[in-house]
Write a structure and sequence with these properties.
Elements (H helix, E strand, L loop, with lengths): L1 H14 L4 H17 L4 H8 L5 H16 L12 H10 L9 H8 L5 H9 L15 H16 L2
Length: about 160
């Protein structure tokens, strides 16, 4: 477990595609799993063998945990209008989404993570069902998907 996680973190750091905070936010669940299995954060830090100082590493962990537990992914109703998702719900029908992530990024005009893409697939959305003016950036897209997901759950 440590070697895979260490390799993944180092690879993401070396790629330069992500900020350190994003890297830790992406991997916080694995780090927290190790912590719940009885490893101390100091042991995890030493075994992961990153080039970071321990104080910086702990700060990144703390912020990733806060972001994971905060309202970061919660629905902000002022940003997404309820009637927008109601229209989508009326068109919602379970079917397989076969549009690749690249097509979604081209359609939206910005990059999306695998996590967001998986949420789109889980909701069986197609590019024809999302109005790009309603989701002009990744943050709004996440809010939109969260609200839609909640509406489907309570349907």
């Amino acid at each position: 477990m440590f070697s895979k996680l260490s390799e993944k973190i180092k690879q993401e750091m070396d790629s330069g595609d992500f900020s350190l905070q994003v890297i830790f936010r992406r991997n916080i669940e694995a780090i927290e799993y190790l912590h719940t299995e009885g490893y101390t954060y100091r042991t995890i830090f030493k075994k992961l063998d990153t080039s970071l100082h321990e104080k910086h590493w702990r700060d990144l962990i703390r912020r990733a945990k806060e972001q994971n537990n905060s309202k970061f992914m919660s629905v902000n109703k002022s940003n997404v209008k309820t009637d927008d998702t109601s229209i989508l719900l009326s068109d919602y029908s379970p079917r397989i989404n076969d549009e690749p992530i690249e097509e979604w990024m081209n359609y939206l005009g910005y990059e999306i993570s695998e996590r967001v893409y998986n949420k789109i697939v889980d909701l069986n959305l197609t590019t024809s069902k999302i109005n790009t003016s309603k989701v002009p950036n990744p943050r709004r897209l996440i809010i939109f998907l969260s609200e839609l997901s909640e509406k489907i759950k309570h349907r």
